[in-house]
Amino acid sequence: CYPREESNNTKSFDCNFVSKKERSKRICGCSATSDEERKVYKPDGSDLSIVLTNNGENCDEACKGKNLTCNWKSLFDAVKYTNTETIQNTVTQLGMKCWPKMSNETALKSTPELKVNENNTDRGYCYPREESNNTKSFDCNFVSKKERSKRICGCSATSDEERKVYKPDGSDLSIVLTNNGENCDEACKGKNLTCNWKSLFDAVKYTNTETIQNTVTQLGMKCWPKMSNETALKSTPELKVNENNTDRG
Fold first, then answer.
1. Three-state DSSP state, 153
2. Alpha carbon of 85 to those of 47, 81, 122: distances in Å?
3. pLDDT at position 109
4. Helix/strand/coil for 103
5. Is the pLDDT of residue 53 over 70?
6. Distance CA 184, CA 240 (A)
């Protein structure tokens, strides 16, 4: 028997951690509270919903728990509800409290979070979102490294059913865009399709300098600027979304 140590490290509260010891069984605490009871905050009339992750969970998992989708745009749309002026109301709407509200110890985070208090689990330190838009800010799969931390996630009602698909010819080739932090295997599976060497190879002629603009347009986005001197050729064709206009890049 391996009793629990006193220090509350990340593994202590990570539901997804698997013991590396041979023949070991973790001793797990479970809750009767299901994802059905996870609170959702809808701050405006759009399809944006905001939820809290569980400890050790990412935004993709938290959104899926409410049959919602996490993507670059949903996290971007949640920015204005997680800054220093708005995060307290957002956390309150999610059934928690910022306590202390905003102390000197509360550092700004690229990913907005709530670090739950050890003794009062309905409150904690709120970490509002900083202004810089780094990669982790809009990564649905990023998991907070802080103990007892919950990420504040923006989710979209737009599901994989609504992911645009471009069929450029009479073959079985379909072209889709990934969400931020997603790979082609996941994007294809979202439309019940398969990603393999041949499918990526077949898409090459639709993603070169002459054809990529039309392909991106067919997928509901825009190449903007079209092809500037700054546009470097990539071994994997990509669209880097504009920070202010999320339908182009």
1. strand
2. 22, 8, 20
3. 75
4. coil
5. yes
6. 15
